[in-house]
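Q: How do we represent a protein-ligand complex in a form that can be generated token by token?
A: Start from the inputs.
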Amino acid sequence: MGNSAQEKGLPYVPDCYLVPMADRPNLAPSVANIPVIDLAKMPDTHHRSTLISQLSDACRRLGFFQIVNHGISESVMEGALKCSFEYFKLPGEEKTKLMSNDVFKPVRYGTSMKDGVDSIQYWRVFLKHYAYPLHSWTPFWPHNPPDYRKKMGKYCSEVRRVALELMGAITESLGLGSDYLGNRMEEGMQVMAVNCYPPCPEPEVALGLPPHSDYSCLTILLQSLQGLEILDKEDGNWKVVPELHGALQVHVGDHLEVLSNGRYKSVVHRATLNSDKTRVSITSLHSLGMDDVMGAAMELVDNQNPLQYKESSFRDFLDFLSSTDISGGKRFIDTIRLEK
Ligand code: OGA
Ligand code: NI
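Then emit the structure tokens for the protein with N-oxalylglycine bound:
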């Protein structure tokens, strides 16, 4: 425990981290052309329709966009990143107390994905924890660094507010109205994945995370450095997400793909590495409650658009995760697709 190559800072990449040739990253990837959506206009009825059509285009084209003027201050974002960096710098024993491969644990530390179980290892260290209701979970979060609970907690509650507002605007963009999910998102889950990617001596042969889509409805990501890549489904190429100061990245997740009956597709993405700087990212995954079942909106199902997915819950996703080696790119969404 606490002995992975990335935690030790090995000067070479062990064989178990080598990704297949076809999946190796390009160290000079092309830059994605990503819609930037200005949320300052969200409450303004005059601009609301522009915003809704921008969201519709972005969710359809890439399943990915950046948001600016989201209302989360720079100091709150910096505070969350800083306490994350400090957490990962703690001595091994402090972190391995929370170490577990049990995906049902609400708070856990780990390396790679399921280290020691998966066939390919990834150059990542992570802390995952539930964040809603905040006061129920913070007592189980790390004690150290001492300001972790306060700083991360503040970011979690602010990013959740943004995610719920966005989700309303997105159901509106599907023609369902902003209240379509009622209070199901408010009562839903917020899971944080705090990721650390130490410098990697051979960033051209390994990855921080394999290609995957998130199971969530929406994921909001805050990163300390460039490194996230998305698969552009228009040309099939991997593209790096450019840095845009103060922006947050939003992913369409599998459960939004299901709700939209395939009009919006979850974005396939991966984390790449670099050889000189530690990169930290904070992912906030927003979904319905643990056992609340997501299915396609019946308004979006008709003869031309037959039902495409089975219903599923967050718990179904965890069952999939615990029983499947996803290190080679297996996706949850593929297990709930209905036969054509
Ligand atoms: C994730 C994820 C990307 C990144 O945590 O699901 O895709 O850049 N992270 O860390
Ligand atoms: Ni992801």
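Residues 212, 214, 269 surround nickel (II) ion (ligand 2) (CB under 6 Å). The chain has one domain: 5-336.
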